[in-house]
Each structure stands twice: as C-alpha cells, then as structure tokens.
Structure to design on (337 residues):
C-alpha cells in the first residue's frame, strides 16, 4: 500500500482543520492538543528516524513505528501514562479518519488500533471543591457591580450544569428551554452531541435575574455570556473566564489555604460530579449528565472518592449559594434546595 506524501498531507490537514472542528465540533483547545501531538510526532521522526516532515507518508505509521514512538515518550521524555494514552488516542483518531476516507488505509488503522492503552497508577487527586469551598467561592464576586453579578452567575451555572467551558460559552439565550415541567439547558457537546440538563429551582431564580439584567429586549440568538466591544455583543472568550477565575481563586486561597490553587472552570465540573457521586447517583447517570462518551472516563470520580470516603459520609451543605432560611427540597443530584 503506497500513498503519496501529498495525499498524506492533504488528509492530515483536513483532519486537523475540518474534521475535528466542523464535523466533530471539538473546541479550539482540543484541536490544538491534537496539533501538538503531531508536531511532537514529526519531531520524533526527524530526530530519531532521520525522516523529515516533507518525507513523511503513511508508511511511517506502522504499528512498530508508533510503538517505538510511545516507548521514546516514556523512556526518553519521561511522559506519564495519561500523556502516552493521549498521544496514542490522537494517532488512532487520525488513522481512523483516514480509513473512513479511503478504505485502502483501513488496515493501517486496524494495525495501530491493536496497541492497547498503557496501564499505570491512576492519579486519585481529582481537583474539586468541597461544599464549604464552593459556598465561599460564590460569595467572592462583588455583586454590587454588573460584572460581579455576571461572574457569580457564571460560577453558579458552571457548577450546576457541569458543562465544559466551551459548552458554556457557546450557550445562547435560546439554549434555555422552558416547559411546564422544568427548565433545561440545551448543551451542544463534543462530537456534535446534544444533551439537556435540567436546572433546579434555586438556579432558575439566578438565571431569571441574570436574563432580566443582561438579556432584556435582546434577541435570543445572542450568546448567553457576552462581552461588549464598540457597542457590539460578542461571545465571551475563554481568556475572560480564566482571568476572573484566577482572581477569585487567589482570593479564596488567601482566605483558606486549603482552597486549591489555580482555579479553573473544569474544577467546578469535577465538583458537581463528585457531589453527585457522594450522594449515591449512579456513575452511568453522571456520565450522561457530563456528556462523556465512555463510562471509563466518568469512573475517575468513584476512584478519587476512595481517598475521601470518610468525608463522603459527613453531613454537608448541598446548596452553597442559597441564603439561610430558604426552603429546601431534595433534587436529582442528591442536593437540597
């Protein structure tokens, strides 16, 4: 099976620029990680095999070559097991795409796909916040200011929805689905998959207050979270979220040294998943709630919980942003409101 270098470049370009973004609806951050994986592979072939990038073709992707590459990552660059598996996954995804585009390339994918994921000690330290830490975090934004109110609602929704950062930023006012039974968020996730996340009554109150202030008489196709530039509402950028999260995380850590350093939006996603798991919600339900494609991904929460099983039995405040005296009811996440 001989395919020209030019054909290889065309498929690699289409995979990185069209397939991942347009077809699979991957975030720019995920697409960047795939590009980095292939840049490192290119470096390996040049330095270890004497093959320049302009000389690469599909013959480079033999099972033995890919296994040698992974061994080099492990032994020479001291990469972790998780990093090895990420690099392997990127290569498998590319070759699967190539096989779907050209059946002659399918044997190449089948050969490399027989390389099993590396096994090793899994890191049980999933970064998540306790209920006390969440309560303190939600109290930090200055709600006497417009941006403070926006930022606090973003924190609340990031926790309650369990959505990824890009999923939150892609939400529009029209993503809020209301009917007589409930209020849901229509979330478009990885792989262009759509899921519906119901919101609890306390969260709906915050949502309605936010919409009344930030989306009054504004078309529903405007992004739910936006910034204003030259009187134009544009989609909020990840950098904006990172900026205020680092600020609030720093303040929270100053007040409580046990508050994790480096607060980021995914930590809120981990936090709600851990809360649900500790309250007995089945892993399969949490998988669907988070939009994971595999239950193996979701199982990290049950593994991490082994380290904190004693704390899981303690009585915790399940509604960190609701003031004392608010009526409470059991919700589907095992929380009270």
């Amino acid at each position: 099976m001989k395919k020209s270098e030019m054909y290889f470049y065309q498929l690699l370009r289409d995979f990185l620029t069209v397939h991942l973004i347009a077809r699979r609806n991957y975030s720019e951050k995920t697409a960047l990680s795939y590009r980095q994986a292939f840049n490192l592979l290119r470096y390996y072939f040049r330095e270890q095999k004497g093959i320049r990038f302009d000389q690469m073709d599909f013959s480079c992707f033999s099972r033995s070559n890919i296994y040698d590459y992974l061994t080099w990552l492990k032994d020479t660059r001291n990469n972790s097991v998780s990093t090895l598996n990420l690099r392997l996954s990127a290569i498998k995804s590319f070759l699967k795409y190539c096989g779907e585009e050209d059946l002659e390339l399918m044997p190449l994918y089948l050969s490399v796909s027989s390389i099993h994921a590396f096994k090793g000690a899994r890191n049980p330290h999933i970064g998540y916040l306790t209920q006390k830490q969440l309560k303190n975090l939600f109290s930090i934004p200055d709600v006497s200011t417009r941006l403070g109110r926006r930022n606090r609602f973003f924190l609340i929704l990031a926790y309650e929805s369990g959505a990824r950062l890009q999923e939150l930023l892609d939400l529009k006012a029209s993503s809020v689905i209301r009917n007589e039974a409930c209020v849901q968020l229509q979330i478009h996730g990885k792989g262009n998959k759509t899921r519906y996340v119901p919101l609890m009554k306390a969260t709906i109150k915050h949502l309605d207050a936010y919409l009344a202030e930030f989306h009054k008489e504004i078309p529903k196709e405007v992004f739910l979270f936006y910034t204003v530039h030259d009187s134009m509402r544009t989609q909020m950028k990840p950098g904006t979220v990172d900026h205020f999260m680092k600020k609030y995380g720093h303040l929270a850590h100053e007040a409580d040294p046990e508050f994790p350093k480096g607060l980021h939006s995914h930590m809120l996603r981990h936090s709600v998943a851990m809360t649900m798991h500790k309250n007995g919600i089945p892993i399969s339900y949490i998988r669907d709630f988070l939009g994971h494609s595999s239950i193996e991904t979701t199982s990290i929460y049950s593994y991490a919980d082994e380290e904190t099983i004693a704390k899981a039995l303690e009585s915790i405040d399940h509604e960190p942003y609701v003031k004392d005296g608010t009526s409470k009811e059991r919700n589907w996440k095992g929380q009270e409101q």
Notes: Residues 306-318, 324-330 have pLDDT under 50 and may be disordered. The CA atoms of residues 325 and 337 lie 10 Å apart. The first helix runs from residue 5 to 23. The beta strands are 176-178, 183-188, 194-198, 226-229, 232-235.
